[in-house]
Amino acid sequence: MSDYLLEMKGIVKQFDGVRALDGIDIRLRAGECAGLCGENGAGKSTLMKVLSGVYPHGTYDGEIIWDGKPLHAKTIRDTEKAGIVIIHQELMLVPELSVAENLFLGHELTLPGGRMDYAAMNRRAEALLAELNIRDVNVVLPVKQYGGGHQQLFEIARALNKNARLLILDEPSSSLTASEIRILLDIMRSLKAKGVTCVYISHKLDEVAAICDTVVVIRDGKHIATTPMAEMSVDRIIAQMVGREMNQLYPTRLHTPGDTIFEARNVTCYDADNPQRKRVDNISFTVRQGEIVGISGLVGAGRTELVSAIFGAYNGPYEAEVWLDGRRIDTGTPLKAIRAGLAMVPEDRKQHGIVPDLSVGQNITLSVLGEFARATRIDQEAELKAIQQEIASTRLKTASPYLPITGLSGGNQQKAVLSKMLLTRPRVLILDEPTRGVDVGAKYEIYQLMLDLASQGVAIIMVSSEMQEVLGVSDRVLVVAEGRLRGDFINDGLTQETVLAAALDV
Ligand SMILES: Nc1ncnc2c1ncn2[C@@H]1O[C@H](COP(=O)(O)OP(=O)(O)OP(=O)(O)O)[C@@H](O)[C@H]1O
Ligand SMILES: [Mg+2]
After folding, report:
1. In the predicted model, is pLDDT for residue 349 greater than 60?
2. 163 Cα–ligand 1 center, Å
3. Is 485 exposed, middle or buried (CB count within 10 Å of its CB: 0-12, 13-18, 19+)?
């Protein structure tokens, strides 16, 4: 018998000419928790899709040995039967179905005679969530009632419901808050104690360092190294990922903000289902020309609601007055907001950012198609040029602008959404969690892009749950807690403690 529960040997996976995986070998011991790290587009998700049967046997080269025997999975069902369960990077829940129905999707409990046993599923769902310490959930409500963090936890609960021997988590924490991440890490520890083998993919390398036994680094579809975590540090993981030392995570801020150009006044958002409840309570703030304002706060504080209302994208009753250059502007819908000079990169790129049926290029020019419209036709040459410029300036990694956007790695989809908004040449750019799922090198590029735009005079509003990022790039930091503005700090030697204290002081 081999020492390993899993061996993947010489895995090669191509997509129309793109060699996403170029002969990868990895091995896992039973009970091991391995961190899988690499830059955006390195091949992490693809490798795990090969392993989990999303890409069936025969559509890749190489060999998978699972529990001593070759694994020839035709579908994801086959691998689930073998005990391999994957939680995908993009959520796979059905928004209209209840939490309980989602947890049992494809494994429904039935009554004799074949009808669904909703009562049993609801009970089991409640028990499962309680066991995972996920509180305040009504399992009969549709999943869409809950925010991204909760949905991610449901996805994890659903996977655990399948009794995995090997659990693969692809970017599970990117939409979680600090307290949700603690729940997740606790779940991981208890899985380890039960002997479940895990593959943990995350760009949050401190999490990898906290829970993984080994670190597997891949780059450009090739295996670089597998090292015991005890011998690694976050800096060394980064160096292996990018192939060089990176000693600066944030570019230097050189720009100086000018006069106030943007103002949001009296923004109040009411809960869509319970209009008595205010999710944002009368917030006003200003932004100067060429200023980067970070909005910090705990998840659920109302930050996304605040910026969505300003951009006309809040899906409930709200009030907001928006001013640009001293004039009140109409931002009642996203289209009006874009015409008035605003742009927003939303938090949830799958739901609000990309159009999955369109190509990379079509997604990028979506908001500015009018610019390429001539009397009777679309000026495709001009359009292609604009697309290529954007791809180059955000260093988006795609084999061609004509590929479907869904073929891009997660981080590169994020860059496409950013490009789409930059093409509208906004005066005010709103970014909601702009570096979610983005690797360290690409994060640096996005920060650099923000600083360049700021030097050109664009006013930037960034919502981020990553405190270090807020402190790393912002000129000023606003703190929101329980729907109210709790702090407005110039970022000059500002510390995490000060920001946290304001966020917690309710
Ligand atoms: N369905 C597909 N069609 C075409 N190309 C694809 C497809 N899926 C992945 N690729 C390409 O394969 C490469 C690896 O992508 P993959 O999604 O595995 O990266 P990743 O390491 O998971 O990145 P990220 O950190 O951004 O999620 C990328 O160049 C990507 O564009
Ligand atoms: Mg991925």
Report:
1. yes
2. 28
3. buried
